[in-house]
Specification:
- The protein is an all-alpha fold.
- The protein has one domain: Fumarate Reductase Cytochrome B subunit (Up-down Bundle), CATH 1.20.950.
- The chain contains 10 helices and no strands.
- Helix 2 packs parallel to helix 9, helix 6 packs antiparallel against helix 8 and helix 8 runs antiparallel to helix 9.
- The relative contact order is 0.18.
Length: 217
């Protein structure tokens, strides 16, 4: 079995199993917290609107803080958008999703994907340097923050190298890229990357809980 066969076979299968079970476990835990009965008298009959409103309002910072976090605000959105484009609109990635979902969608030119991936990589490197050098961010950061950044950076680097055929044979680069993506799959449910799946549900939960009490989240 070659390294590429291993990456496409057992490593991919087990990483996806760990990813799915881990995500389901984390979501189940969050749902159990939400299911806890609140014995206090509700101020409103339904708090669904408050939950949905909080999802929208928490997507933008309060104007009092906008000036101080403007760099992180805009760079964060730009990073997520460029990563989204690189992952979901690259032809080989679409073929992978199609093999799982049974359907695909149009792809973007390879040059566009390389540019968006390079932008995502540059922004992420800049943000991690800022995290490590900023006195407050450095103080509140832990190993999870840096591990989560690394497991995202490495697939971006290996993906760019594989797409550009730089550094080694394409088969070797592809195998390494797949293995780094699979490492990301394994880490995803257990680190802060899980915010990708929990951000909106947690915002809804907070908004609904505060709405039930008659206050703004």
């Amino acid at each position: 079995m070659t390294l590429l066969d291993f990456a496409r076979g057992p490593a991919l299968q087990w990483s996806l199993i760990i990813l799915v079970i881990g995500v389901m476990w984390r979501i189940a835990g969050a749902l159990l917290i939400m299911a806890k009965k609140d014995l206090s008298k509700p101020r409103r009959k339904t708090a669904v609107r408050d939950g949905l409103t909080t999802i929208a309002t928490r997507s933008l910072p309060e104007h009092q803080f906008e000036k101080k976090i403007r760099l992180q605000h805009y760079s964060g959105y730009t990073w997520h958008i460029t990563l989204f484009i690189s992952v979901l609109f690259f032809a080989p990635h679409i073929l992978f999703f199609e093999s799982i979902l049974g359907f695909g969608w149009p792809h973007l030119p390879n040059d566009v994907i390389l540019v968006t991936a390079a932008i995502a990589l540059a922004i992420l490197l800049a943000l991690v340097i800022r995290r490590a050098s900023h006195p407050v961010q450095r103080l509140i950061s832990n190993a999870d923050d840096y591990i989560s950044v690394v497991v995202v950076i490495v697939p971006l680097v290996t993906g760019i190298l594989a797409s550009a055929h730089i550094g080694a044979r394409y088969e070797t680069l592809l195998a390494i890229h797949l293995l780094t993506v699979e490492a990301l799959f394994v880490w995803f449910p257990f680190g802060k990357l899980m915010h990708a799946a929990l951000t909106f549900p947690s915002r809804f939960q907070a908004g609904a809980a505060f709405g039930r009490k008659g206050v703004k989240a």
